[in-house]
Sequence to fold (263 residues):
Amino acid sequence: MDVRKPTLAGLWYPDDPVVLSSLLTHFFSKATGLPDCFGVVSPHAGYTYSGQVMATSYSCFDRNFSGTFLVIAPSHRGLGPYTSELNWDTPLGTVACNTEMARSLGIPLSDRAMEVEENSLELQMPFIKHRFPHARVVPVLMGPQDYEDALALADTIQNSAAPSADDVRIVASSDFSHYVSADVAKHNDTYAIDALKDLDIRSFYQRLREYNVSACGYGPIAVMAMLARHMGATHGTLIQYMTSGDTTGDKAQVVGYASIAAV
Fold:
């Protein structure tokens, strides 16, 4: 089976396995999540900025989980929707793809689309390998993210693969507001996130438009919420919110990061 090699190791996160493992262990030691959930929103910025929130997101899954993570991420180049049968190499080892599930999704397969430098998928993989060493993944790269696109993708996945809460968890890869002040980011982001309390996707889209929230993975968030509802989720919970300013000290131009669990 072909392997997708890292493109951002040594840049966005450490490429030394000892250093990376130590960093992730540190993040998880400070993370307070949930016993388990159906799906989460996880950021995808450099670990220096968003790693703590990412650890909180992955702490919302049972750490003994050994099934499949369906990782839905935005394509910053507008590619997709695509999935792939590639395994994912990380400095901590290889994350195997659930090829049977990937083939069953009803989404076009494209290894080439996965091989481009795309942080939204790649940055999730070391967290999965570190926390859930026996789990597999199915990556989904989402291009257009309008409400209709999210509804169609969720329906395609549900009708083709029917993810089960017994052996599948959903990860939506997304950052929130980009390059606004920390106060504006927190106000606008939490207003949009509040719509997810009832997994109300239509309201979520309305609030994004109303406040011009520049979340880059709003489509994957919507797909995750819809699939999680099919799997049994009844509500969404904001677990942690931070901005890049909490790390850099620069509150004037920040990016927002949120850990949100569908329960």
Observations:
- The mean pLDDT is 97.
- The longest strand covers residues 254-262.
- The longest helix spans residues 147-160.
